[in-house]
Structure to design on (322 residues):
């Protein structure tokens, strides 16, 4: 049995899990359509890895109706295992053997005939830019190479659903971007990706839908745009060095909040070109010039902190024009 077009790749109803007296998942619902990227966000310890472990059959839920790839997790975990790939904090890479040997071991585990195993391994090593390193022990690989090898190994069995548990944690920006490219490629091949991440920008960049896990429940779920609409706070900020120009602008513009000490003005805005133009027109008409203009649109950081009650002060400036 395989997933049909209308059937979700992953569906959870009332997923519940406690460790001893501590409830980590209080009955959550998740639906992931096939061929999409679903991102589970949450503060450290929220239970993201627990969700991945349950959905990938590594541990069992206390309660809930769960299906992955059209297979019921409770009654048919073997079929689920055959449909999925998992990479993450529990990496399968063996550092003592070479990248190629790791790949061939995986091909053996999937009972691929020898020639096919070699062909598949070679193709994936090539695709993940590991040909040069293939004959070296995996322990000598950089963090990014190791993650690439881990994903390549996961793909040996041709899974249609992949769980990536914090795939870019600890990677430098270049390796992170290369991993994003890999994830996009997987999705364009029709693979469903279930991604946990602590980087909101990553979810924003890759995910079709995002769920924020907090206090044992889903605090919010939607597209990045839908989530951003949950928090107000878009504005244009004008900064001045000349107090006279600041005063003139404060008088010319309506609905501004003033910060007299910083000589800066804050105008509510949806960040659209139209609104930006009208503010610039007002300033022109008043004959004042701001020294700095920044546009702030709420980003996922704002959503995340608003929903999870964090106290962090994320960088709020998404676009700057001087
Ligand atoms: N085997 C276990 N026994 C007891 N408690 C556990 C066990 N595994 C996880 N926990 C606890 O359950 C909670 C959720 O853990 P989990 O690893 O799923 O969180 P997470 O959201 O993935 O966090 P992180 O981003 O830190 O990996 C944490 O408080 C953790 O300490």
């Amino acid at each position: 049995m395989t997933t049909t077009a209308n059937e979700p790749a992953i569906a959870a109803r009332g997923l519940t899990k406690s460790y001893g007296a501590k409830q980590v998942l209080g009955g959550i619902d998740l639906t992931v359509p096939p061929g999409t990227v679903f991102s589970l966000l949450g503060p450290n310890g929220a239970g993201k890895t627990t969700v991945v472990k349950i959905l990938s059959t590594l541990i069992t839920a206390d309660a809930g109706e769960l299906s992955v790839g059209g297979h019921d997790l409770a009654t048919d975990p073997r079929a689920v295992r055959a449909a999925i790939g998992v990479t993450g904090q529990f990496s399968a890479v063996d550092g003592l053997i070479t990248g190629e040997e790791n790949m061939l071991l995986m091909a053996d585990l999937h009972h691929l005939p020898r020639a096919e195993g070699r062909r598949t391994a070679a193709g994936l090593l090539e695709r993940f830019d590991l040909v040069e390193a293939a004959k070296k022990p995996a322990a000598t690989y950089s963090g990014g190479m190791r993650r690439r090898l881990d994903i390549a190994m996961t793909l040996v069995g041709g899974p249609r659903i992949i769980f990536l548990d914090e795939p870019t944690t600890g990677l430098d920006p270049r390796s992170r971007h290369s991993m994003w490219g890999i994830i996009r490629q997987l999705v364009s091949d029709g693979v469903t990706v279930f991604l946990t991440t602590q980087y909101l920008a990553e979810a924003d960049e890759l995910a079709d839908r995002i769920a924020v896990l907090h206090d044992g429940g889903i605090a919010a779920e939607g597209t990045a745009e839908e989530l951003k609409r949950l928090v107000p706070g878009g504005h244009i900020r004008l900064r001045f060095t000349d107090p006279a120009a600041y005063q003139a602008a404060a008088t010319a513009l309506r609905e501004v909040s003033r910060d007299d000490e910083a000589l800066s003005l804050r105008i509510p805005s949806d960040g659209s070109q139209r609104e930006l133009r009208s503010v610039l027109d007002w300033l022109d008409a008043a004959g004042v010039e701001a020294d700095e203009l920044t546009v702030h649109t709420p980003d996922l950081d704002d959503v995340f902190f608003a929903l999870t009650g964090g106290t962090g002060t994320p960088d709020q400036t998404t676009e700057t024009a001087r």
